[in-house]
Structure formats: structure tokens, C-alpha cells
């Protein structure tokens, strides 16, 4: 299709969208806001916003529309892109049997991104807003990875505690809005984390209440007593958007500056703890459960942990995509062996699926050739993802007396990756918020592996376990001497 034939995405031109593309059947002009969502990345638009769109298509939840928000300067560019197309979004499902597209319309606005977050605070102070949800990445909650406690010494947190009326963080803005609502008598809202964190609601509560306590202890008590923070498990593989995704939208006849591609799978398990009401998420396919924990352990340990198992070795040897990593027989075998022997034994079954059947499910999902999910994206922020997704399985294995040689190798692969040089000599561009610490430590660990495990902010006391430290040291030495494939084969043959 020629560029001149494309339909520029907007309310005014929805009727011109090709018939094969789904579109809102509801009157978007009649929608009213009920949710502020902070962190308008691709995952949110393919997940929570889609669930809400599905409810709206059923004639429900029209008073729960989403207002987007961001707290970083780059979020302003996303705001401009989305407002220019009336906050509509093209979702493209990448099913191996055929692609399909639909336009979602559950988001109706985006607050201005300003230093001090005044517009965001004002929007969240509106009594119509009953849920504030977030996707701010696993490492965005100011948690000490070694202890799981609140990082009260972080410069952003110290700023917000000293300047609560002009906060820098999303959490400081939430606190300022809750203060205004308490003082006005308009009541609390629910804080809903949609990030890949075990106990994500409890962690969000910890961050908000702990930060509030630093400047206003009475408000902290009020928030803790009145607000709810439901735990949830979220799941959908959503690649980043680049020129190829924009070109894919063109194939459907749509000119969308910010389309989203996603796999043909979604899951959302939610604790029913909403102090100011909620949409009927279950009518859109979500699972409302009092046992979110077991679902999230399965997903975080096997899917998110599995991503870390394959991303680092693939990056080191120059495999660019997750599907490409799964097509590499040694990397795929490594994933299945590590999960089967060292992760799955510590994961409980959930209704409808056990851990090894779940491994088969993610094997197929990771192997989807239509999903161009890069190994670089998945390897990003290992300093949050390894403590969150890999180290809990290491600790469970050591506590139960089960061997963890494969997980020790996964940690060694992370250290090898952070040297910043692939096996072909190409350089790895910085790929972690803590790269300035990780990269030189990884280089020094080539000669002294204990230095890597000595980063207690990530490993806690794991480096004190002599057996684990010995296995890690042996694998790291082998990786540098023999290379990734030979080392993985040695593990698989052992």
C-alpha cells in the first residue's frame, strides 16, 4: 500500500480504517476517566489498556477510561505522538498462523509532563480517578535488591522527601495527590502495579508508604489504612516499536506513529483489593484470585527467569532475537535443562497447568518467529532482573540442598556479558542502569571471579556460600577460556 493510501490514525478517520482492522464500537466522546496510568510503554497498551478496551466493546466500563502520564522528560515525546492521534493505538497480533490488527480506544488523554509533576498531581487529585496504575519497570520501585527493603537513601527519594509538593518520582506525585484527596475529603484511590515484580502490590505499598513517612508520618498512616495495592501477575510478550513495526502498521493501511506488536497470548491474575471500585476485569478474560502468589512465582521464575537464561548467552554470541536463541539448539537445551532441574522443583502448580507444562508453553511462545523480541531488550537491566528472577531460585535450591550448577552458570553468563565485549569482538553498548559499576567489575572478575559475587547489593550473602561461589568461579573461568557454546555443551553433557 502506498503512503498516500494510508489512513492517518485519528477519531475523525476511524470510519476509513480498512474493514479487516478492528476498531472501537463505542462512542469515545462519551468516555470519562477513571484510571491514571503512569508509564505509557508498549506493554501497558497491549495489556491493561486492551483489557479495558475489550470491556468497552461489551458496553461496559465507559467511566473507567485511561489518562496517560509520565514523570520523565522523554515521556513528553510519547505524549506528543499519542495526542496527535487522539490516543488511539494499533495493536498487531503476531500469530505464527497469521497477523491481525485492531485499534484500541480506551485511553482518552495524557497529562502534560512537567518538572515537579503539578499536572499529574492535579489529575490524580480528581475524585473521578479511582485507580492509579503503573508500569515503571521492575527496577523502578526504589527497592534494595539485596534486602528487598525500601531504598530511603536514593537521591530521588531524598529529593521527594525534602520537596513533597514538587516531587520527582511517580510515587511522590501519588503521595501529593493522596494528601490533597485526604484534605478535601474525597477519599483514597487504588494503587495498581502492572510490573513484573513478585508481590508487586505489596512492593508498591512499601514504596508509597515509606516515602510518605519521610515527610508526613500522619499521611503515611492514612494511606496505609485507606488505600489498597492489589498484587497481580501480568504476562504478554511485547517487543519494542521501531521502523519495522511502523511499516507493519502500514501493511494494514494505517499510519500510526506508535503501533504495538504483541504475541497471541495474554494473562492477568489480579487480587480483588480495590478501595474505590474497579472495572469488571474478569469479563475481559482476567483471573480474579486470592492466590496471585503461586501464579506470579510460576511466571516470574520460569518465563522471566527463562528469558534471562537465554538472553545473555545469545547476546554474547551475536544472536539478535529471542526466537533466534530458541532456534539455537544448545541455548534451547540449556533453557529446558535449567528450568526442569533447578527452577521447576521450587514452583507450585496453579489451576490448569503445572510447571513443566508451563515450560512447554513458554518454549512455544519464545520460539514464535513472528515476534522480533531482541535479546538486548531482554538482557537490559540485569541488575534488577537477576536478583528478581534468578536469585530466588538459587536460594531455594541451596536451602533445599539441591544442586544449582545451571543457575551458577546463568550468573556467570551475566558476568561474562557485562564485560561489554561479544565473542566476535563487537562491543556491547551499555545495557543496564548500573553499567558503570557492572562493566569494570566484570572485567576484573575475569581474574578474580569472587569480585562479581561480592556485589552484595545484588547478590546479598550468596557469595558467602562456598559451594555456589566455587561453581560460579569455575563456569566464569570456562566461559572466558572456552567460549559460550563449549561451556554450555559441557554443562548439558554433565
From TrEMBL:
Residues 291-474 form the Mannitol dehydrogenase C-terminal domain. Residues 34-282 form the Mannitol dehydrogenase N-terminal domain. This is Mannitol dehydrogenase family protein. One of its GO terms (molecular function) is oxidoreductase activity, acting on the CH-OH group of donors, NAD or NADP as acceptor. InterPro entries: 6-PGluconate_DH-like_C_sf, 6PGD_dom2, Mannitol_DH, Mannitol_DH/Oxidoreductase, Mannitol_DH_C, Mannitol_DH_N, NAD(P)-bd_dom_sf. It holds the Pfam family Mannitol_dh. Keywords: Oxidoreductase.
Amino acid at each position: 500500500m502506498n503512503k498516500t493510501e494510508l489512513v492517518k490514525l485519528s477519531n475523525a478517520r476511524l470510519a476509513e480504517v480498512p474493514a479487516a482492522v478492528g476498531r472501537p464500537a463505542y462512542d469515545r466522546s462519551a468516555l470519562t476517566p477513571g484510571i491514571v496510568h503512569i508509564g505509557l510503554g508498549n506493554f501497558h497498551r497491549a495489556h491493561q489498556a486492551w483489557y479495558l478496551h475489550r470491556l468497552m466493546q461489551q458496553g461496559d466500563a465507559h467511566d473507567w477510561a485511561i489518562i496517560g502520564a509520565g514523570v520523565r522528560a522523554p515521556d513528553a515525546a510519547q505524549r506528543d505522538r499519542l495526542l496527535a492521534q487522539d490516543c488511539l493505538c494499533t495493536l498487531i497480533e503476531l500469530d505464527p498462523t497469521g497477523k491481525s490488527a485492531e485499534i484500541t480506544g480506551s485511553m482518552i488523554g495524557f497529562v502534560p509532563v512537567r518538572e515537579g509533576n503539578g499536572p499529574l498531581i492535579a489529575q490524580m487529585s480528581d475524585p473521578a480517578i479511582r485507580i492509579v496504575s503503573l508500569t515503571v519497570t521492575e527496577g523502578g520501585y526504589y527497592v534494595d535488591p539485596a534486602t528487598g527493603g525500601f531504598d530511603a537513601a536514593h537521591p530521588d527519594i531524598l529529593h521527594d522527601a525534602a520537596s513533597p509538593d514538587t516531587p520527582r518520582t511517580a510515587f511522590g506525585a501519588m503521595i501529593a495527590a493522596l494528601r490533597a484527596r485526604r484534605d478535601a475529603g474525597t477519599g483514597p484511590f487504588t494503587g495498581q502495579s502492572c510490573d513484573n515484580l513478585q508481590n508487586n502490590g505489596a512492593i508498591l505499598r512499601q514504596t508509597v508508604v515509606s516515602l510518605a513517612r519521610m515527610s508526613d508520618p500522619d499521611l503515611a498512616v492514612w494511606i496505609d489504612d485507606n488505600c489498597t495495592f492489589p498484587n497481580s501477575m501480568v504476562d504478554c510478550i511485547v517487543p519494542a516499536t521501531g521502523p519495522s513495526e511502523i511499516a507493519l502498521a502500514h501493511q494494514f493501511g494505517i499510519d500510526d506513529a506508535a503501533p504495538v506488536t504483541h504475541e497471541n497470548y495474554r494473562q492477568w491474575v489480579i487480587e480483588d483489593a480495590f478501595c474505590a471500585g474497579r472495572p469488571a476485569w474478569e469479563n475481559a478474560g482476567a483471573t480474579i484470585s486470592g492466590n496471585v502468589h503461586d501464579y506470579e512465582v510460576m511466571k516470574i521464575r520460569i518465563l522471566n527467569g527463562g528469558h534471562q537464561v537465554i538472553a545473555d548467552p545469545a547476546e554474547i554470541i551475536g544472536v539478535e532475537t529471542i526466537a533466534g536463541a530458541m532456534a539455537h539448539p544448545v541455548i534451547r537445551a540449556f533453557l529446558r535443562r535449567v528450568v526442569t532441574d533447578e527452577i521447576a522443583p521450587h514452583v507450585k502448580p496453579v489451576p490448569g497447568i503445572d510447571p513443566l507444562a508451563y515450560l512447554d508453553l513458554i518454549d512455544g511462545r519464545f520460539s514464535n518467529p513472528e515476534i522480533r523480541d531482541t535479546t538486548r531488550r531482554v538482557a537490559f537491566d540485569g541488575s534488577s532482573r537477576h536478583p528478581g528472577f534468578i536469585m530466588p531460585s538459587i536460594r531455594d535450591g541451596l536451602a533445599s540442598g539441591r544442586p544449582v550448577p545451571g543457575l551458577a552458570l546463568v550468573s556467570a553468563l551475566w558476568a561474562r556479558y557485562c564485560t561489554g565485549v561479544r565473542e566476535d569482538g563487537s562491543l556491547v553498548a551499555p545495557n543496564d542502569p548500573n553499567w558503570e559499576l557492572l562493566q569494570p567489575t566484570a572485567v576484573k572478575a575475569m581474574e578474580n571471579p569472587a569480585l562479581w559475587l561480592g556485589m552484595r547489593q545484588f547478590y546479598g550473602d550468596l557469595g558467602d556460600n562456598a559451594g555456589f561461589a566455587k561453581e560460579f568461579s569455575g563456569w566464569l573461568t570456562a566461559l572466558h577460556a572456552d567460549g559460550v557454546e563449549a561451556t554450555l555443551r559441557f554443562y548439558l553433557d554433565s
